[in-house]
C-alpha cells in the first residue's frame, strides 16, 4: 500500500479508539477477521448458508444464496480457505460513517491471499492468470492456487447496538461473480 493509505488507515484506527472503542486493536481485529474468513469461506464452499445468519448481513446472505447455487463445483471448492492456508492478510479501506437516523458505523475491508487445492483451470474466466504453486517432485506434485478474497466487516457503534462485527461484502474475484 502507499504511505498515504497506510497513514490514513492508522488515523482511522486512532479515531476508532478515541470515539468508539478504547480497546480496539487492529492486530486483534485481524486475527478475528482471519478466523471469520476461514469459517465463512468453508460454509460457502459446503453450501451451508443457513449457518451464516449471525455472521453475514441479511442482504448479503440473499445475494450469496443466488450466486452459490449457480457455481460449478470446482469454483465452489476454491472458496474454502483453511486458516493455516492464509498466506497474507492486509486491511484495505476503513470507513467511519453515520446513517440518516444518526446511527454510527465502522467498516473495515480485509484482503486475504490463500492457497487452495481446488481443480481449477490454468486460466480462469476473465483472462486472468491464477498463480500456481507446486509442492513435491514430479511424481507426487500437488498443485495449489494462490487465490484472493475481500471481506468487508461492519460494526454498529450506536449506544445499545450489539457489539458484533458483521460481514457485509464478500468478493472472491473470478470465482464468485
From TrEMBL:
UniProt GO cellular component terms: mitochondrial inner membrane
Highest taxon in the source lineage: Eukaryota
GO terms, biological process: protein insertion into mitochondrial inner membrane from matrix
Molecular functions (GO terms): ribosome binding
Protein name: MAIP1 protein
